[in-house]
Amino acid sequence: MTAAANALRGEATLLVGGVAFVLRPSFESLVLAEAELGSLFALVERAAGGALTLNEMTALLWHCLPAESRPERVAVGQAVLAMGLVGATGPVRAVLAQVLQGEA
User: Fold this and answer.
1) For residues 60 and 94, is the Cβ–Cβ distance under 8 A?
2) pLDDT digits (tens, 9 = 90+) for 33-57
3) What is the torsion angle, in degrees rounded to the nearest 10, for the CA atoms of residue 14, residue 97, residue 88 and residue 75?
4) Which residues of 36-72 are buried (b: 16+ CB within 10 A; e: fewer)?
5) What would the pLDDT profile of 78-97 be if each residue is shown by its tens digit?
6) 32, 59 in Cβ contact below 8 A?
7) Within 10 Å of residue 35's Cβ, how many Cβ atoms?
8) pTM for this structure?
9) Distance in angstroms (rounded) separating the CA atoms of residues 87 and 53
10) What is the DSSP string of the chain?
């Protein structure tokens, strides 16, 4: 996917296997993430407290990738590891900010 992320819409870019994907935290993707991870508000609280797990970060980002071109979850996990947990907080923060603030 080559589209550029629009930070004003709460989007961020995630590089997976050399391909840039735009993370779009849609209602549907967030509902699916919440079904897997539990309350998004609790997820935000864990993130604020530095207690977000690698699995939670990967799942949240994976759910926010476009379904029609979404890579396998293991590839997203490898991308998170490649950028490091500190580097991965940027895209995670963008998604969580969208959850808290809504659409711009």
Assistant:
1) no
2) 999 999 999 999 999 999 999 999 9
3) -50
4) ebeebeebeebbeeeebeeebbbbbbbbbbeeeebbe
5) 999 999 988 899 999 999 98
6) no
7) 9
8) 0.89
9) 14
10) --PPP-GGGT-EEEEETTEEEEE---HHHHHHHHHHH--HHHHHHHHHTT---HHHHHHHHHHTS-GGGPPPHHHHHHHHHHHHHHHHHHHHHHHHHHHHH---
d(CA 62, CA 56): 10
In total, the chain counts a number of residues equal to 104
Answer whether 3's CB lies under 8 Å from 66's CB: no
